[in-house]
């Protein structure tokens, strides 16, 4: 079908356009990271406690940290050209392998959080729009303002206090019951239990945004002529809201959600630290503290890839949701 | 035309917090008849139509009157019962074809929606019926067009789709609110022809709302002239054009270019009615008094009653029957 070919061509174009973007991002990131004081050798030496000038110098030359800056940049780019993300001095393993271990956990967390945020946001926003100006609208407005303004780590801590410490319903950290040999559905459910609190803490901020966005969009759509046409057909208020109003109000929400997917990685750093969730966010945090720039560059590269992919997905989603757009 | 009455509106008043855009309006529509409601912009035509569908904006209130539709008072029905009438027995076509269709649903989906709701058709049967309907409203290649989205259609085509939606369940009454105002002239006639053909084929009654008197002659059985929410004159179209009584109707005819040649009603230049409809706000007497060429002091104190100068004829102006005035009013001075 021509539609599929058009979609394919659009995706190819996106991928080709992404290459120069990513190159610029890498170079910029590389120089920015050089501005941080100290390097991996300093940190390792500091941790070891009794390091002499000579051992630090030896570490540097072993990791290539003593080379001139441009030399190191080209070495890194050369690695990339050979599909390698380099080697981490601190973890003593290839960066790609390191990221590969952590990526699934973070992606899962982010996607679950985004799903929670979109579903809850749309539901709450719809309630607000349907009851605009009435009590439910007011209550949810206040709640969403709270979610919006309270920092993620604090929400995380409070959720732990309530659901893990007081009620004992959910685990307070980790990513699965250690030593359990669960399989199949049970393993999934076990993981889900560990995921609920971190994903919720990550999601609440976005729930607030999507709820307000949905409310505004629905109120705008509500006064459109085609909603009156729908009412003139004798449809019930529920059908009118879901089929005609919500469907049109989805567009701004999906745009936002796509843009947020990249930003969520930043939130993941905090949430993963609070819940000791073994993901990329925590790896990034550790890499910064250890001045392990090869790992950090790898993570930054990956997150820009995630953003670009998310944008492509949003474009496709839009073409599907809004027939007027089409695939360009 | 001497059919049984299908719709009977009595003393309908629609009120917003600050204004009353429809006041004490009464009219009847018989089975299979076309009633034209004519009046300039702002005279309350659309609000009357929406009141019949019980689709008035939230701020509006129906403060008095009854609307009897084949034996039921529409104003007394609960929400569920009125919904079961909408789209099924009373359907409506709106003024704006460009924005009246949902941009993200295919036209097929928008037509089948009411078929599935009111007639309980399966998805497949509804689709077949929708293709028939598109064919009925003369959309070429309906089996292809059915999967189009509204933005792929021209304004005239969209209005045809709106008509297909409206007649999908063979309503007994179709309200067309300025169905052709947004379309260009060649398409206007096609759409009106289509409406008239469907009215006959589906034996519907039609309320044709317009501000264009030219439309009325050809397509209406009966004409109600509205001004500032009130009925000022009612007549059969031939009588209305041969001998318009109310000064407002005369003004409308003087301002209507097409009628000049057909009816030789005046040989003077086109004249618009001086003043604006806004002047009716706050008038205690006849709403047209501030703009009327033959206004008397008595006109401004009480609302004129509807007089019956002839059979099938009503007019809300006592002054025209005073000697000499008809001539003055006819010249639109
Ligand atoms: N939602 C509303 N709130 C307040 N006033 C309104 C509202 N809708 C309509 N009106 C007023 O009611 C009056 C009649 O409006 P209506 O839309 O029925 O006019 P109309 O005869 O259909 O005019 P047009 O030919 O422009 O469609 C107008 O003066 C308008 O300002
Ligand atoms: Mg109108």
Automatic annotation (TrEMBL), chain A:
Domain named ABC transmembrane type-1: residues: 103-318
Keywords annotated in UniProt: Cell membrane, Membrane, Transmembrane, Transmembrane helix, Transport
Bilayer topology annotation: Multi-pass membrane protein
Pfam families: BPD_transp_1, BPD_transp_1_N
CDD domains: TM_PBP2
Top-level taxon in the UniProt lineage: Bacteria
InterPro entries per UniProt: BPD_transp_1_N, MetI-like, MetI-like_sf
Subcellular location field: Cell membrane
Coiled coil: none
Residues spanning the membrane: 12-33, 107-133, 145-165, 192-213, 249-275, 295-321
Main location: membrane
Family the UniProt entry places it in: Belongs to the binding-protein-dependent transport system permease family.
PANTHER family reported for this sequence: ABC TRANSPORTER PERMEASE PROTEIN (PTHR43163:SF9), DIPEPTIDE TRANSPORT SYSTEM PERMEASE PROTEIN DPPB-RELATED (PTHR43163)
Protein name: Peptide/nickel transport system permease protein
Source organism: Kaistia dalseonensis
UniProtKB/TrEMBL annotation, chain B:
Compartments where found: Cell inner membrane
Keyword tags: ATP-binding, Cell membrane, Membrane, Nucleotide-binding, Transport
Transmembrane domains' residue ranges: none
Domain of life of the organism encoding this protein: Bacteria
Residues spanning the signal sequence: none
Gene3D superfamilies: P-loop containing nucleotide triphosphate hydrolases (3.40.50.300)
SUPFAM superfamilies referenced in this protein's UniProt entry, alphabetically: P-loop containing nucleoside triphosphate hydrolases
One Pfam family named in its UniProt record: oligo_HPY
Molecular function (Gene Ontology), one example: ATP binding
Residues in ABC transporter domain copies: 7-253
UniProt topology in membrane: Peripheral membrane protein
Family: Belongs to the ABC transporter superfamily.
Name this polypeptide is given: Oligopeptide/dipeptide ABC transporter ATP-binding protein
Source species of the chain: Kaistia dalseonensis
């Amino acid at each position: 079908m021509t539609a599929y070919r058009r979609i394919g061509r659009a995706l190819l174009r996106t991928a080709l356009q992404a290459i120069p973007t990513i190159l610029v991002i890498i170079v910029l990131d590389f120089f920015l990271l050089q501005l941080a004081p100290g390097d991996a050798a300093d940190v390792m030496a500091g941790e070891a406690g009794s390091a002499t000038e000579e051992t630090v110098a030896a570490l540097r030359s072993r990791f290539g940290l003593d080379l001139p800056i441009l030399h190191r940049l080209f070495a890194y780019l050369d690695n990339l050209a050979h599909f390698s993300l380099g080697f981490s001095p601190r973890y003593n393993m290839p960066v790609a392998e390191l990221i590969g271990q952590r990526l699934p956990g973070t992606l899962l967390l982010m996607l679950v959080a985004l799903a929670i945020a979109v579903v809850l946001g749309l539901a709450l926003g719809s309630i607000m729009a349907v009851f605009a100006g009435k009590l439910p609208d007011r209550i949810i407005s206040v709640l969403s303002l709270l979610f919006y303004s309270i920092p993620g780590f604090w929400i995380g801590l409070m959720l732990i206090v309530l659901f893990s410490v007081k009620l004992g319903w959910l685990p307070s950290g980790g990513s699965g019951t250690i030593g359990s040999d669960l399989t199949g559905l049970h393993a999934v459910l076990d993981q889900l239990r560990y995921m609920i609190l971190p994903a919720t803490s990550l999601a609440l901020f976005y729930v607030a945004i999507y709820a307000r966005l949905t409310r505004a969009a629905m109120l705008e759509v509500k006064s459109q002529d085609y909603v009156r046409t729908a009412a003139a057909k004798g449809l019930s208020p529920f059908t009118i809201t879901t089929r005609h109003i919500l469907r049109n109000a989805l567009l701004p929400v999906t745009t936002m959600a796509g843009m947020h997917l990249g930003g969520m990685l930043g939130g993941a750093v905090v949430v993963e630290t609070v819940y000791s969730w073994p993901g990329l966010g925590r790896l990034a945090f550790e890499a910064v503290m250890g001045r392990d720039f090869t790992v950090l560059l790898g993570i930054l590269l990956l997150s820009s890839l995630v953003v670009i992919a998310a944008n492509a997905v949003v474009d496709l989603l839009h073409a599907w949701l809004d027939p007027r757009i089409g695939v360009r | 035309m001497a059919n049984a009455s299908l719709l009977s509106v009595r003393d309908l008043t629609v009120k917003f917090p600050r204004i009353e855009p429809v006041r004490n309006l009464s009219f009847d529509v018989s089975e299979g008849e076309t009633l034209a409601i004519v009046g300039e912009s702002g005279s309350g035509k659309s609000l009357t139509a929406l009141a019949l569908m019980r689709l008035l904006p939230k701020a509006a209130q129906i403060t008095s009157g009854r609307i009897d539709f084949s034996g039921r008072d529409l104003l007394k029905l609960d929400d569920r019962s009125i919904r079961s009438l909408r789209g099924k027995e009373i359907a409506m076509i709106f003024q704006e074809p460009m924005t009246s269709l949902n941009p993200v649903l295919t036209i097929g989906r928008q037509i089948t929606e009411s078929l599935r709701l009111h007639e309980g058709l399966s998805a497949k049967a509804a689709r077949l019926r929708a293709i028939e309907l598109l064919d009925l409203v003369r959309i070429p290649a309906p089996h292809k067009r059915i999967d189009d989205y509204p933005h792929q259609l021209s304004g005239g085509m969209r209005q045809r789709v709106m008509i297909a939606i409206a007649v999908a369940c063979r309503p007994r009454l179709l309200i067309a609110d300025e169905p052709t105002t947004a379309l260009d002239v060649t398409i206007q006639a096609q759409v009106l022809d289509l409406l008239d053909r469907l009215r006959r084929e589906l034996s519907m009654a039609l309320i044709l709302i317009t501000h264009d008197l030219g439309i009325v002659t050809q397509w209406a059985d009966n004409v109600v002239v509205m001004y500032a929410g009130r009925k000022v004159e009612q007549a059969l179209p031939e009588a209305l054009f041969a001998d318009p009584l109310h000064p407002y109707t005369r003004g409308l005819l003087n301002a209507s270019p097409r009628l000049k040649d057909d009816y030789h009603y005046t040989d003077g230049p086109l004249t618009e009615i001086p003043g604006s409809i806004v002047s009716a706000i706050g008038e205690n007497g006849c709403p047209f008094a501030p703009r009327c060429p033959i206004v008397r002091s008595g006109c401004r104190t009480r609302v004129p009653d509807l007089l019956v100068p002839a059979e099938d004829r009503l007019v809300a102006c006592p002054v025209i029957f005073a000697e000499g005035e008809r001539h003055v009013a006819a010249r639109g001075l």
